[in-house]
Amino acid sequence: MSKVLVIGAGGVSSVCVHKMAMNSEIFPEIHLASRTRSKCDAIAASVKTRTGQSIETYEIDAEEVPAMVNLIKKIGADLVVNLALPYQDLPIMDACLETGVHYIDTANYEPKDEAKFEYKWQWAYHDRFKEAGLMALLGSGFDPGVTSVFTMWLKKHKLKTIRTLDILDCNGGDHGQAFATNFNPEINIREVTAPARHWENGEWVETPAMQVKTEFDFEAVGPKNAYLMYHEELESLSKFNPEMERARFWMTFGDEYIKHLTVLQNVGMTSIEPVRYQGKEIIPLQFLAAVLPKPESLGETTKGNTNIGCIATGEALDGSGEKTFYINNICSHEAAYEETGNQAVSYTTGVPAMIGTAMMVTGKWSGKGVFNIEEMDPDPFMDMLNAHGLPWQVKELDGPVQF
Ligand code: NDP
3.40.50.720, 3.30.460.80, 3.10.410.10, 2.40.160.20: which CATH number matches 3-138? Predict the structure, then answer.
């Protein structure tokens, strides 16, 4: 497996492609295609300047399966790295099946007309990938991705079973704008305005969006309000760790972000229902996304750190009773920008996308069918996190979280 085709040319793709080019012994040939070719060319130019590596670029609408099939065949790609948007997951998987190539992504499928991301659509491809002898790896970003691997590493090395899990995602970066999202605005706003859901005693408990919050003191950031949210790794983590009594996901938001989002919601700008405007049908959220700052434009001004990790409580592997561990990564926006020209939210997603792809290319992870990242051995992935810009730390806490 030596030829990779990356789809999408946003912030996540930019980081992933830069990191691939920095590891040319694993990725000797990189191809990059997206809806807007000029964005691929800009990434290729930056990669050339920073690493000396050349990258081929193409224009593609990844929702057009025959066009994707032609492109994969023309390149002779072995693996497609999907860093476009969740809407493209299924057409890209169809094209992979038709051409006999492997697949990896960072976000699960979501239909355009319903803000409901779930794994069921992609899990339904398992038998077809298995019969074709192909591997599809789902969720190789940070969350999902690293948070899932962190949890499975704790379960391999520290805890026999996990009783409670809390994933804490803090972006302590300041981009100097009144309101902006640090990854694709449309996907981000669909995610944070959806009702919160967490796993408790074998079922999903739903609460209104952004209502339940706790304050947590994040290392390298300081105290922040973290809000209970639904996040896609809760679905796979609860599937692969059925013993868990409770699993929750928390994300920090500043008061300014909440204020702007509340107003935008109240006036209908976050709606995905089409409205007629000057004789044309438009989706308010798509229009809003078009006027908000592009996430890839925030890199230069963003200062501060991200701190994302998992707190897990369960029965210790060594038989010493119940223990609680906190495992996390701290990433600097400035350092991420200096290395790749992108801020830390793109960096913390693009690096694990490169590492997951490296696991498949090198054969450290293999399989036939559709797999979530939780099903793979966490150790080689964790080693690469340390070596490629996302070092992690683990410590024992005095007891379970009290929020
Ligand atoms: P961006 O919006 O910056 O980039 C998305 C790219 O996909 C753009 O270049 C866009 O093209 C391209 N694209 C959109 N539609 C198509 C299409 N039909 N065919 C081909 N290309 C298309 O997003 P990000 O880089 O911030 O995020 C990329 C992905 O990563 C998203 O799926 C997001 O959900 C996921 N993500 C995952 C995280 C994790 O931790 N697991 C965290 C953050 C993001 P154009 O430029 O022309 O619009």
Answer: 3.40.50.720
